[in-house]
Design a protein that fits this description.
Blueprint (H helix, E strand, L loop, with lengths): L2 H9 L10 H9 L1 H19 L9 H13 L13 H29 L1
Helix pairs in contact: 2-3, 4-5
Length: 115
């Protein structure tokens, strides 16, 4: 793998394949591996754009346990409400993980439906 391939692949997640600057664009126009990587990220961005308005409710046990953890966590001495507490941070992490999982399942289902 050439050094310029590494650069193209490192910027591929956020790059517009048609808008790569100068030498990167010239390289991507001739390198099949870089073209494939850019095409994969373009496809992923299109799939995510289609799902931008898709929402999935959190599973009942998760939503209830997160709400209970937030409601029953007593503040520590000298704890300010502006500073996140570990339990709230853990609950937020759990919600974020559940949302990421729901998105991953939806993308997987969408890709299976397209085949």
């Amino acid at each position: 793998m050439r050094g310029i391939c590494v650069i193209v692949r490192s910027i591929a997640p956020s790059a517009d394949p048609a808008g790569l600057p100068g030498p990167l664009g010239n390289h991507a126009a001739t390198c099949l591996r870089c073209q494939a990587e850019l095409a994969r990220y373009s496809k992923l961005r299109r799939q995510l754009a289609v799902m931008a308005d898709v929402t999935e409710p959190a599973p009942d046990p998760l939503a209830a346990s997160v709400a209970d953890a937030i409601a029953t966590d007593p503040p520590e001495a000298g704890d300010s409400e502006s500073r996140p507490r570990p339990t709230r941070a853990a609950a937020a992490g759990a919600v974020a993980a559940a949302a990421a999982g729901a998105v991953a399942v939806a993308v997987w289902r969408q890709s299976k439906a397209a085949v």
